[in-house]
Amino acid sequence: MHQLPHYRTKKITLWLSLASIMVFGTLIALQAYNYHEDTPQAQCYASIDFVYSTDNGQRWTGKGDMSINMDAGEIYLYFNLKSPQQQGFLYNRRLDVHFEKLDTSRFLFNTQNATVFESDNSDKQALFMRRGLEGGLITYSRFSDVEYYYNINNMLMGVCHVPT
């Protein structure tokens, strides 16, 4: 039996459609893969506001950002501080840390190195920041050990989504 000419046209159209889908699908997949590889993975990030009171009742306030890179073992800190005399200071540092898992509910990190960036001018004025952050504390007040670990756990679990 003789095939009608429109059958051949439908067959060619079908094959061209499949070839186009394969080519463009491959191009889209390659582009998505390249975007994924070229874009750095998002770090854990949090905006933090705090108040620190010294023994004599003076209050320091601070607003800033903290980002944690669990893979590289780095914490980036950028805080605008206000002294009790309303002077402004900038705390801008990178902490090279080693994260340890204490148990299923508590995390602790040990600071190995602190890099001070050029814009940081809080060295001699805000000693509590150095003692608190570079010593491994996230909290700025007098908390018990349980609350201290709980706050670090909140930071890592809530911001970084670290599995327990």
Provide a brief overview of the structure.
This protein has 164 residues and is of the alpha+beta class.
Can you tell me about this structure?
The structure is a single chain. This protein has 164 residues and is of the alpha+beta class. The chain has two domains: 39 residues; 116 residues, no CATH class. It contains three helices and five strands. Strand 3 and strand 4 form a beta hairpin. The radius of gyration is 27 Å and the shape is rod-shaped. The termini are far apart.
What labels describe this entry?
about 160 residues; alpha+beta; 2 domains; five-stranded antiparallel β-sheet; 3 helices; 5 strands; about 35% helix; rod-shaped
Give the helix/strand layout:
Elements: H1 5-38, E1 44-53, E2 59-69, E3 74-82, E4 88-101, E5 107-116, H2 127-134, H3 145-159
Antiparallel strand pairs: 1-2, 2-3, 3-4, 4-5
- Bin the strand percentage: 25-35%
Shape, per Cα inertia axes: rod-shaped
Strand order of the largest sheet: 1-2-3-4-5
Percent helix, as a range, is 25-40%
Quaternary status: single chain
Mean pLDDT value: 72
* Rg calc: 27 Å
Termini gap:
71 Å
How many structural domains does the protein architecture include?
A: 2
